[in-house]
Amino acid sequence: MSKSEHSVLPSDDEIYGSADMGRAAEADAFPQSERPARHAYEAVHDELMLDGNSRQNLATFCQTWEEPEIHRLMDECLDKNMIDKDEYPQTAEIEARCVRMLADLWNSPARPDGVGCSTTGSSEAVMLGGMGMKRRWEAKAKAAGKAPGRPNLVTGPVQVCWHKFTRYWDIEHREIPMENGRLIMTPEEVLSRCDENTIGVVPTLGVTFTCQYEPVKAVAEALDALQARTGLDIPIHVDAASGGFLAPFCAPGLVWDFRLPRVKSINSSGHKFGLAPLGVGWVLWREQKDLPEDLIFWVNYLGGNMRDIALNFSRPGGQVVCQYYNFLRLGHEGYRKIHTACYDTAHYLAAEIGRLGPFEVVYGGRMEEGIPAVCWKLKGDPGFSLYDFADRLRCRGWQVPAYSLPPRCETLVVQRILVRHGVSRDLASLLLKDMRQALEHFQRHPVASAMTGQEASGFRH
Ligand SMILES: Cc1ncc(COP(=O)(O)O)c(C=O)c1O
Questions:
Q1: Which among 56, 74, 101, 211 is most buried, taking Cβ atoms within 10 Å?
Q2: Per-residue pLDDT tens for 91-103?
Q3: Nearest CA to ligand 1 atom 7
Q4: What is the pLDDT of residues 124-142, one digit of tens each?
Q5: How many domains does the chain have?
Q6: How far is the CA of 107 from the centre of ligand 1 (A)?
């Protein structure tokens, strides 16, 4: 309900004069008494004002702007439970259509079928894709009559979900550290870490820290050569959390998906560049034989049997329905238009940030190389840190995270902007204005003691 609709309702002016609004909202003990719905609503609504403005959160990869039709569909789907295929067969059908469309988008040989499912996001998708790799490796060792050793997984610098996966499943994580001048995996670094207990290699299409694509094709070719030399057949899972919904539209010539026979599974986040509201991801396997049978639970569906692969049981269906809406609404054409606008804005920001003086752009959002984002570092010592700069921008509501890179490059501090749907050219120009003002502020009021990473606030994704 909008404020204007609110104000015509008779009891409106009593809300803040009422007895229950004369005390702070309960925060610890379970409330004893009830409140009128409108009063409780205003109390919660007002508290939410203290959250940041999500549109100015340039740290997140996730969607913060949605069309009115998405808001309507989300409302209409409030009661839809993804697990309840019998009660909501059309929602189940819509999920299956999305899987088939993604199998088409990512060039699966299983087309027109698709093997996979929706998840709550890439983290759950990664967990399922990772479990698939582990099970396939175990089955292979068993078939060869070998007692499996301790499994290991080879990755570049990955998002925390892969640390969770390897820790939860007791897998040795062979994470290729960044080096000065090399911030992503290379085929040589991958090969030097592979052995018979490697369950898989995970290149990331859009590394979280620098936003660059890792070289999936070159890694696949190196693993082909390794197999020819040694017989070791090591599969690839691509973490395409961001790139899965970018590369097919903006870099169609980039070969990273099921066109490479070694790529056995892919995850992506619908709620990132898939443009769906928060709470949906996807995992797809190349073909039926790549999905281990024991990851599948069969649930009853209209008297038939339907596949369920998930860590959760109940899960909201609205995000999946909205993903389908986006596929229908945008198609290749619409996704290409929206993401191209984001890349254009990223280039504009990169050029202007480079011109400000103290900064050197590390990555500027090139379509073949990564996601629409800008990442920069300090050129020398301008008398303030990037944490100070981030803190100053925060005064105007912008969240532009500064963070140090992972081990071996931790002395390198970078700052990053994710340019996603809704980060318009106009907003970018306003941000640049605030950046110039922040630099002028530091000139007028030099920083006496620069802020460190420990002192800086903010969630860095
Ligand atoms: C490369 C990568 N993988 C996985 C994830 C986790 O995705 P989600 O937030 O959809 O669970 C992220 C999130 O930023 C990411 O960047």
A1: 211
A2: 999 999 999 999 9
A3: 122
A4: 999 999 999 999 999 999 9
A5: 1
A6: 22
Relative to the CA of 158, which ligand 1 atom is closest? Answer: 1
Q: Cα 283 vs. chain centroid, distance in angstroms?
A: 13
Is the model more confident about 290 or about 411? 290
Which residues form ligand 1's pocket by a CB distance below 6 Å?
61, 121-123, 126, 159, 161, 204, 206, 208, 239, 241-242, 269, 281, 461
Structure tokens that stand for 182 in this block? 């090399």
Say if 149 falls within a structural domain: yes
Ligand 1 atom closest to the CA of 206, numbered from 1: 1
As a dihedral over the C-alpha atoms of residue 163, residue 166, residue 172, residue 176, rounded to 10 degrees, the angle is: -40
Among 342, 346, 349, 353, which Cα is nearest to 438's? 353
pLDDT recorded at residue 153? 98
Element (H, E) at 281: strand 281-285
User: Peptide bond before 112: cis, by omega within 30 degrees of 0?
Assistant: yes
pLDDT in tens, 147-173: 889 999 999 999 999 999 999 999 999
Mutate to test the pocket of ligand 1, among 120, 122, 209 (most ligand atoms within 8 A of CB): 122
Give me the pLDDT at residue 10, please: 45
What's the length of the chain?
461
C-alpha of residue 159 to centroid of ligand 1, in Å = 6
Q: Is residue 296 domain-resident?
A: yes
Global pTM reads 0.94
Phi, psi of 175 (to 5 degrees): -90, 120
Nearest CA to ligand 1 atom 16: 208
Phi/psi class of residue 365: alpha, beta or left (left: φ > 0; alpha: ψ in -120 to 50)?
left
Of 265, 268, 269, 416, the one to substitute when testing ligand 1's pocket (max ligand atoms within 8 A of C-beta) is: 269
Which of 123, 163, 268, 280 has most ligand 1 atoms within 8 Å of its beta carbon, as the pocket-test mutant? 123
Q: Which domain holds residue 185?
A: 72-326
In a domain, 62, yes or no: no
CA–centroid distance, 327 to ligand 1, in Å, is 21
Percent of the chain scoring above 70 in pLDDT: 95
Mean pLDDT over the full length of the chain:
93
Q: Rounded mean pLDDT of 203-222?
A: 96
Q: Which two tokens stand for residue 95?
A: 């999920």
CA dihedral 118, 119, 122, 126 (to 10 degrees): -100
Locate the ligand 1 atom nearest the alpha carbon of residue 61 and give its number. Answer: 14
Band of residue 313 on the pLDDT scale cut at 50, 70, 90: confident
Over 70: is that where the pLDDT of 63 sits? yes
Q: Does the residue 5 lie in any domain?
A: no
- Atom number of ligand 1 nearest to Cα 208: 16
